[in-house]
Amino acid sequence: MIQPKDLILDALNHKKTKQVPWVPFAGVHAGTLAGYDATEVLTDGDKLFASLMEVNKLYRPCGQPVVFDLQLEAEILGCQLLWTKDGPPSVSSHPLEDNPAVPCRCTLPTADDGRLPMILDVMRRMKTAVGETTALYGLICGPFTLASHLRGNDIFMDMFDDEDFVHSLLDYCVDVGKRMTELYTDAGMDIIAVVDPLVSQVSAAHFEEFLSKPFNMLFDYIRERDRLSSFFVCGDATRNIEVMCKTNPDSVFVDENVNIVEAKVITDRYNIALGGNIPLTSIMLHGTQQDNMKYVVDMLDGLTDIDNFIVAPGCDMPFAVPVENTVAVSQAVWQTDKVREMLKNYVSIQDDIDVELPDYNMLSKPLLEVFTLDSATCAACTYMMGAANAAKEFYGDTIDVVEYKYTIKENIARCKKMGIKHLPSLYLNGQLKFSSLIPRREELEAAIDEAIASTASKG
């Protein structure tokens, strides 16, 4: 009898599969199934284990992550974290912000550092409990996002002003990734996922200049450890799918910003499995059970074939996703034909939410609007919002800054009315300035200076 685990392993080994596998990226969301908040799940091993077992029982996964926390390594390396009860923590300080010096290799994480003793223990317990039927994912923070955690938003300026420092810092972050890979494979993880949401915030040219070698090194090392790999990126990574494939991962996972059909044409060309990309908020968080089932069925029907494909949420699932919605996804995966027939006459009901946009022509001062998934939980959104906050600190009361989080229904309607296609995006006086590309300080300040001059001329 074929096990769910076999399906995911076959997909990652590029074998033909009669049934598409599925992986619920239930990070802190797992806690909702056992009655625990996000902080409890990420700091208490017994609560984490109980939550993961509920994920395994209710969602019938082929594979599942043990923990989804891209701040784990950063915390060990000296970053301060801001904790919340309904999402993973976010980085609030950057050790290299005022001192761009690459850390010593003696600072690489060990099994005794930070929360690693708890997490490694839970990994071993999960391996014993479900390892025969479920492929277990060990998620590590990718080198570029980790470098950003350590350096802060200045990493984007460094890519122009101090290339040698960026290369050296990324080399260090690769060593951190190798160490985490070693610890996680020793703890029994079947698949190592390198999760680097900030990859979507750089151009393909910058990727090839700074990131191709680091990712190649990481995926080669994972292969040396006799494990399978995933390259996980959030945001609009469309322009980088091909250069990501060239780093030789076994699979690539993308979110709703990427056209899954077009992406699969590229990943198939490189014989790399593709995973994704159920929308996290509009479908999983705010949709109905039928919406979730229909999205999965329509996605599968849109593909030429299901070989080399894995159904998954677009990224780490929001904490408050209704349990029944994820169960619906599982049902659509395991009983696709039955669900397709059941939904043949279903039409999604759209919320009629009216939002009022600012009168951009009558603003008394420049307005920066940052549209994010949630800057408290999405790394790319954190740094886009960080750029806006830095501008606010510099310009003070001469500009206004507001964040619109896509996790709020009203803001979904606002995004639709504005015609926003990708998150995170930054608008200035109602005009799109930066979409899935975090601006350098001088770029943003130049745009704001122009807006200030234009506002003054109107006055």
Tell me the number of structural domains: 2
Could you name the ranges where pLDDT drops below 50 across 5 or more consecutive residues?
none
Q: How many helix segments?
A: 19
**CATH architecture assignment of the largest domain:** Alpha-Beta Barrel
Biggest pleated-sheet summary:
7 strands, parallel
Helicity range: 40-55%
What is the alpha-carbon Rg in Å? 22 Å
State the CATH topology of the largest domain: TIM Barrel
Q: Gap between N and C termini, in Å?
A: 75 Å
Q: Kindly name the structural category.
A: alpha/beta
Total strand segments: 13
Describe the structure.
The protein is an alpha/beta fold and 459 residues long. Helices cover 47% and strands 13% of the residues. It has helices at 4-12, 30-34, 38-43, 45-59, 72-76, 116-130, 143-151, 154-161, 163-186, 204-224, 241-245, 260-269, 280-285, 289-302, 323-334, 336-342, 379-395, 409-418, 441-458; strands at 63-65, 81-82, 90-91, 135-141, 191-195, 228-232, 251-253, 273-278, 309-313, 367-372, 400-405, 425-428, 431-435. Helix 4 (45-59) packs parallel to helix 6 (116-130) and helix 15 (323-334) packs across helix 16 (336-342). The longest helix has 24 residues, at 163-186. The N and C termini lie far apart (75 Å).
